[in-house]
Design brief:
The strands form six sheets. Strands 5, 6, 10, 11, 12, 13, 14 and 15 form an eight-stranded mixed β-sheet that branches. 40% of the residues lie in helices and 19% in strands. Helix 14 (362-368) packs across helix 15, helix 17 (468-484) runs parallel beside helix 18 (540-560) and helix 20 (594-611) packs parallel to helix 21. It is elongated and about 90 Å long. The chain folds into two domains: 2-336, 3-Layer(bba) Sandwich (FAD/NAD(P)-binding domain); 401-735, Alpha-Beta Barrel (TIM Barrel).
């Protein structure tokens, strides 16, 4: 096969090597416009896993590469005069120039034709003369642009500015992150050694700080001088260096995230940064390039033709690329938003940084550096007010206080509709359901949305708090929770609005009743969907009536013995319909601006708070994202909504998202709503609860320890297992649980023994 590789970076060179290894008869040419010893980066980071893959593909070059590696095991964070160090991370680095030299030598040895200082022609020209054209022509790939209609590239230029520098301050002991506060804002560095006397030193800052310094109008040397002054306490007298003198200006850039819909066109295929990029903060760009080269070489020798090889190449590598890009996006966004975290304690900031990509979990950190994690857990317990002599436990088991209510743990049973009420009255089903979950180790149990009127129910099976028998039934449940468990119970109070008068959840969700429908109201006369009835725009007189219904429900909740209440202002129900512009198109003082849309929800909240006892907490559930872009509530607007309720006396914001319009396009995944809680908590300084696809102790502990939320609500796992909290504690080795019900302690002991045996077998 006659092959042309356009670009002599790691991707093109290693693909050429891989093809010649599989068949020396291949005629492979690498065309590179720069000189052989030119390089415009500094160090390259590779993992042990990638090294193993390289060794399996070509032991000779892998051995040469390994011989030039600098190894380190620690990650260090310099922040506010402190140095936080954790171990067990296993990095290795090599100079990009050294890597290219080694790959060039191996390619020549195998008979690859290397053409340096050669400006490549168009891929269209090469593909006529070659069987295969590999476009490894980098971030600004001309080939990708040439066949843009086929590749359909999505290039997203990100928010921060950075410059890639080097230094002879080697930072030998750790992969080092340095945060410095300047007169123009925060500036930070990513630093790591890659040979005996040189380290990469990437400087990064927000656009605002970049502009305030005027970096964009500086020469490279002027810019370097400023950076040397910022980081002088960490450079040990060493200078910062550039190897990008070919670039005019300061050499600062913003990272372009590249993703292509397709990677091949006829006999042309993209590889490396031309196909996909991963942010430098997780150091996976070279990994993607090298492993993609191996995969494509394998497939070209396994498949009968180019097209089938390309199809499998895309299918196999796309998943890995998307995984890495997802982790890289998380990491990149953490740095883009890092200023929201810079009020955290250094211990918590370090934890947040280490787990930023979500590839490293709480228990994974324990495997890497047990001592450091335990010291962080002890710090968390101390901050939570746990007794000094309390046994060390994971963050999910740390206490939490809201007003006069003390919670034994940070795990909350989410409000989840049961559809088992009769005429609004809870039944024995609810007694058993909530009682079991209160016995299961959670600190707080939420009721499902409890409605303020018959017309405020979602379905005929929804419970209420508008009749004496409701109060009595709820009192029975609250009494059981308090007498038989040490959990607390919260009543979520709401009104269905335009989503009312619908079928039970297991019949047809959100669909109108076949018969017996009742009158429904909303902020505006906009139906939930084409099949739902059009609600009436609620009048001012009706708003007064509904407000008073909320107040009456709050008073009933107090008499029933609830420890806490929540105003349901999310998911498209009545209060939510005022907050969201997709459902509020009123022309009066309750529609239009956010201030106006907030007016009635705050009025209802204030009226409830006025009758709710001072010592008892009150929360508000909001939808922090309508998932319709700027046409609805955005995460930034959600911060303002949360702040308004907080200033009105809310003790906790229960941060959910969506379910406000059928036009929503949510982005699902693990902990997919936690970023909204994170933003509200850390930008506004407000207590939050995270919800949404949280189903492991690792998730909960990572969220809490990183300061992304104060409480964690777990829903569906608690439907499957009322004792989810206790079982997850067992899995992670928690043996300090005081809250197993006494009759169940024999089962507890057995579960502990079995879990210990399983853990021992895994270690063996």
């Amino acid at each position: 096969m006659r092959i042309a590789c356009l670009g002599g970076g790691p991707a093109g060179l290693y693909f050429a090597i891989s093809m010649k290894l599989r068949d020396p008869g291949h005629d492979v040419t690498v065309i590179e416009r720069n000189r052989a010893d030119d390089t415009f980066g500094w160090g390259v980071v590779l993992s042990d896993e990638t090294l193993d893959n390289l060794a399996a593909n070509d032991a000779t070059s892998a051995q040469s590469i390994r011989a030039h590696f600098a190894y380190w095991d620690d990650v260090a964070l310099h922040f506010k005069g402190t140095r936080q160090v954790s171990s067990g991370h296993g990095f290795c680095g090599i100079g990009r120039k050294q890597l290219l030299i080694l790959l060039q030598e191996r390619a020549r040895e195998l008979g690859v034709d290397l053409q340096f200082e050669t400006e490549a022609k168009s891929a269209e020209d090469y593909r006529k003369d070659y069987d295969l054209v590999v476009a490894s022509d980098g971030l600004n790939s001309r080939t990708r642009s040439l066949y843009e209609e086929t590749f359909k590239p999505d290039v997203d230029t990100r928010l921060c500015n950075f410059v890639w520098l080097g230094t002879h301050q080697t930072f030998k002991d750790a992969f080092t992150f340095i945060f410095e506060e300047t007169e123009h804002g925060w500036v930070w560095a990513h630093a790591y050694q890659f040979d005996d006397d040189t380290a990469t030193f990437i400087v990064e800052c927000t656009q605002e700080t970049f502009d305030a310094f005027g970096f964009g109008s500086m020469s490279q040397q002027e810019s370097i001088k400023v950076c040397e002054e910022i980081f002088k306490d960490h450079l040990g007298g060493h200078a910062l260096m550039t190897n990008a003198n070919h670039i005019r200006g300061s050499a600062w850039i913003r990272f372009p995230r590249v993703l292509c819909e397709k990677w091949s066109h006829e006999n042309v295929v993209l590889m490396g940064d031309a196909a996909a990029t991963a942010h430098f903060s997780i150091g996976s760009g070279s990994k993607l390039a090298l492993e993609s080269a191996i995969a494509l070489a394998d497939l070209l020798h396994e498949k009968p033709d180019l097209q089938s090889a390309f199809e499998d190449y895309e299918e196999q590598r796309r998943l890995e690329v998307l995984r890495l890009q997802s982790a890289a996006r998380n990491s990149m966004e953490w740095f883009e938003r890092v200023e929201r975290y810079l009020d955290l304690d250094p211990v918590q900031l370090n934890y947040s940084m280490l787990t930023r990509s979500q590839r490293i979990s709480h228990e994974n950190l324990r495997e890497r550096d047990k001592d450091w994690l335990e010291s962080a857990e002890r710090w968390f317990m101390d901050q939570a007010g746990a007794p000094k002599d309390a046994p060390l436990r994971a963050p999910m088991f740390a206490p939490f206080r809201l007003r006069d209510m003390d919670l034994k743990s940070r795990i909350v049973v989410s409000p989840m509709a049961q559809y088992k009420a009769e005429d609004g009255c809870p039944t024995d089903w609810h007694l058993v359901h909530y009682g079991e979950r209160a016995k299961g180790g959670a600190g707080l149990v939420y009721t499902e949305m409890t409605c303020v009127s018959p017309e405020g129910r979602i379905t005929p099976g929804c419970p209420g708090l508008y009749a004496p028998e409701h109060e009595a039934a709820w009192s029975r449940i609250a009494d059981f929770v308090h007498m038989q468990t040490d959990a607390k119970i919260c009543c979520q109070i709401g009104h269905s609005g335009r989503k009312g008068s619908t079928q039970l959840g297991w019949d047809e969700m959100d669909a109108p009743l076949p018969e017996g429908n009742w009158d429904i109201v909303s902020a505006s006369a906009i139906p939930w969907s084409d099949q739902n009835a059009t609600p009436r725009e609620i009048t001012r007189a009706e708003m007064d009536e509904v407000r008073d219904q909320f107040v009456n429900a709050a008073e009933m909740a107090d008499r029933a013995g609830f420890d806490m209440i929540e105003l349901h202002a999310a998911h498209g129900y009545l209060i939510s319909s005022f907050l969201s512009p997709v459902s509020n198109q009123r022309g009066d003082e309750y529609g239009g601006s956010l201030e106006s849309r907030l007016r009635y929800p705050l009025e209802v909240f204030a009226a409830m708070r006025a009758v709710w006892p001072e010592g008892k907490p009150m929360s508000v559930r909001i939808s922090a994202n309508d998932w319709v872009g700027e046409d609805g509530v955005t995460p930034d607007e959600a911060v303002k909504i949360a702040r308004a309720f907080w200033e009105a006396g809310a003790d906790l914001i229960d941060v959910s998202a969506g379910q406000t319009t059928t036009d929503a396009k949510p982005v699902y995944g693990r902990m997919f709503q936690t970023p909204f809680s994170d933003q509200i908590r850390n930008e506004a300084g407000i207590c939050t609860m995270a919800v949404g696809n949280i189903f492991e102790a690792d998730h909960a502990n990572s969220i809490l320890m990183a300061g992304r939320a104060d409480l964690v609500a777990v829903g569906r796992p608690h439907l499957a297992d009322p004792y989810w909290t206790l079982r997850e504690g067992t899995k992670i080795g928690d043996r300090a649980a005081p809250d197993w019900p006494l009759p169940y302690q024999a089962g507890r002991d057995q579960s502990w023994r079995l879990a210990d045996k399983e853990a021992e077998s895994l270690r063996a």
